[in-house]
Hints:
Blueprint (H helix, E strand, L loop, with lengths): L1 H20 L2 H66 L4 H10 L9 E5 L5 E6 L7 E5 L2 H4 L3 H10 L5 E7 L1 H7 L6 E9 L5 E7 L4 H15 L4 E6 L2 E5 L12 H10 L3 E3 L2 E2 L2 E11 L5 E10 H33 L4 H15 L14 H68 L6 H26 L7 E4 H12 L8 E6 L6 E4 L1 H18 L4 E9 L5 E8 L29 H11 L3 E7 L3 E9 L4
Parallel strand pairs: 14-16
Antiparallel strand pairs: 1-2, 1-6, 2-3, 4-5, 5-6, 7-8, 7-12, 9-11, 10-11, 11-12, 13-15, 16-17, 17-19, 18-19
Helix pairs in contact: 2-3, 2-7, 2-9, 10-11, 11-12, 13-14, 14-15
Amino acid sequence: xxxxxxxxxxxxxxxRILFNRMSLRTRLFLAFVILIISSASATIFIGITVFTTKxxxxxxxxxxxxxxxxxxTYSSIVDxxxxxxxxxxxxxxxxxxxxxxxNDFVSDIPVDFLIVGYRDGDVYFMKKKSSKQDDLSFGKLxxxxxxxxxxxxxxxxxxxNTGAVSSxxxxxSKAGSVLFGFGRDLLSVVSGIKNRFGDTIIAGIEINHKSxxxxxxxxxxxxxxxxxxxxxxxxGDRRILTTIGTDAVDxxxxxxxxxxxxxxxxxxxxxxxxxNTTFFAAYSPLLDFxxxxxxxxxxxxxxxxxxxxxKRTSTLFAGLIVAGMLFGFLMTFLFSxxxxxxxxxxxxxxxxxxxxxxSYKVRIESVNEIVRLSKSFNTMLKAIKERDxxxxxxxxxxxxxxxxxxxxxxxxxxVAHEINNPLTAILSLSSLMLKHLPPDDPRAEDLKIVVEExxxxxxxxxxxxxxxxxxxxxxxxxxxxxxxxxxxxxTEKYExxxxxxxxxxxCENPLYVYVDPKQIQQVLVNLxxxxxxxxxxxxxxxxITEEDSSSGFAHxxxxxxxxxxxxxxxxxxxEPFFTTKGSGKGTGLGLSVSLGxxxxxxxxxxxxxxxxxxxxxxxxxxxxxx
Length: 626
């Protein structure tokens, strides 16, 4: 023991002597090497341990969030069924209800069946045999088939509620065999409503065989979660619909899942077994109208996916730490003695630039990375200076253009205002003289020309004043369909509309917008007259109102079969004073003024045209809740 202690003392004594003989640079390097190695080793060990735990926590958290997104998509089916049932509730008889069921324009997952508890007490059943709209089976339902089942219970539940209600229900094997030809229990999503005539209407989708639903949920979850998820829907603890594969159908959920979801009515997030494979998975309960759990909705991905991610990330993390160690060794060895001074010079240069001194340049006489950094800094400084000069020039040029346009607008408005009164006097006197001249007087033709040309000048002046004048808006919430009707009625008196066939297609539902009705009417009248003037014989104008898919905007589409706009002119139609109507037929201000009005209402105007075939103009306005 004493010998060992002496040997250790001897070793420490020799190391001390060796350390004292080293240069300061070497000592500093070794000190950093020891510090880097010890820190890096501890970082790798702690980091991988913490990361492994965090990966699982993040995976569970991510699973729970992604499951909510899948639940939302699943519940959207219920919302569409609820909307469909409300539409059916407006029908007075079975034929009307059946027509809505045949068309099924609401749900992108087709509705499979319809149960109607009719006002006389009979219960009818409709089922789609194929994707064809008229391929239906229809008949009266024997009460013994549904007695004591979820179907009869939900019928009573609907009768005792006001408004549309929805639920998940189980169709037992006996009823399933009679109704669908499937001799097993079926899970269905249903929505029902009692109409004002006393009928109970239930629309439903049978889930067991809806592979398109499972595929859609899988695509949604995989796209949002950036993971190859698998989707499963359970009736009880039995898997009835899944994207895992046909072998998984009818397989049972893991006992740990059933204990939480089916018995405790809670969501489950964990690592259950699926066909002898461990999954990261999340499950939520499916409830019926009584609040009982009848099934589950689950998403999951094999554990090996996260295992590979954990392994690759741990390897990358360790590799980065090792690379950092090596880089630290190199930097310590090369720059420990003289790195600080150049860095301070660069920091000082950055402070001066931040204060606006772009003339300062960094000069470092050395051959290392700091020199490259200083050169890059100088290059960046030059680029910033050049960019500031260009921005200043562009800003001055744009301001100059704006000032010119404002000056021209004011000049045009002033000139128009000054010549408006003389033109009015000329027009009035000429019209009065023409009225008192005999029709055969040779001066009548000249006066008629004076009246026509003066009228044209007055219209041009009016257009200039309208273009330059800033009118206050008087906004209110109105139905856009009503504005379109009034605008079309105003155009009927114009000569250009005489030989035009006008077709009006208004949206069935009101399109409420918050606008100044008079200004929007001005825009629509201008567009309709433009379309009429572009048409020749057998001209046709189609006016359509519609709501876009987001329900956030209303469209008014004015289409004609006229001569169209040349391709080289399509980008100039909104320029002030630009017109394709020819000399004396237009001022070129109509579309400019119209676009300005629509933009003030936070909308826009879009134009599509094919020369020789016609033009389509779309006015887009934001909708407003009444």
